[in-house]
Amino acid sequence: MAEQQINVAVLGGGSFGTALASIAADNGARVRQWMRDETLVSQINNEHLNGRYLPHYLMNPAVHASSDIQAVLADAELVLIAIPSKAFRSVVQAAKAWLTPNQILVSTTKGIEQEGFLLMSQVLEQETGFSHIGVIAGPNLASEIADKQLTATVIASADPLTRTRVQQALGCRYFRVYASDDRHGVELGGALKIYTPLPQAWRLR
């Protein structure tokens, strides 16, 4: 349980963003989730269900979804950005007018931007210039988190406040959040999991 209420904004209506939004609400945070799809917004607010990405997962009813990115970001201390890498920069650019330097920005996206070969946290730095930047990565699946299977992740940031706030907002009995100051190492490891197939001899049997 979080020691104090944290206002959390989640940008993205996919499976991982939805699971994290619900966990944060379970931990006592005030959570707003942004997505473009008005039908999905209505379903989450009225049925507490993301039928497109996690159809069997009943979300915490305190999560409030909206297609208004300004309203979602208002007063948020922690912003979790769960946007596919291809659209990551464009969403950050759309949100930038309502972001402030005291906010904590955390990428949950695995991937590398092809133009410039940048990691997502580097895109955040480039677009905002903020100091409270981190990345979440780990060997987990949204479906496992939704089923409350024991899973783990790492919040990586050089900023101690970022690490602490993410652990407070998301850590629980089945979702263990470990901390690291090696942001680029953790993020690159997650990205390479996508882009580099394991040699056949390394695959688990």
UniProtKB/TrEMBL annotation:
One of its GO terms (cellular component) is cytosol. It comes from the Bacteria. Signal peptide: none annotated. Belongs to the NAD-dependent glycerol-3-phosphate dehydrogenase family. One of its GO terms (biological process) is glycerol-3-phosphate catabolic process. Pfam families: NAD_Gly3P_dh_N. This is Glycerol-3-phosphate dehydrogenase NAD-dependent N-terminal domain-containing protein. Gene3D superfamilies: NAD(P)-binding Rossmann-like Domain. Keywords: Lipid biosynthesis, Lipid metabolism, NAD, NADP, Oxidoreductase, Phospholipid biosynthesis, Phospholipid metabolism. The keyword Transcription does not apply. PANTHER family: GLYCEROL-3-PHOSPHATE DEHYDROGENASE, GLYCEROL-3-PHOSPHATE DEHYDROGENASE [NAD(+)] 2, CHLOROPLASTIC. InterPro entries: G3P_DH_NAD-dep, G3P_DH_NAD-dep_N, NAD(P)-bd_dom_sf. Residues 7-159 form the Glycerol-3-phosphate dehydrogenase NAD-dependent N-terminal domain. The keyword Lipid biosynthesis applies. GO terms for molecular function: glycerol-3-phosphate dehydrogenase [NAD(P)+] activity; NAD binding.
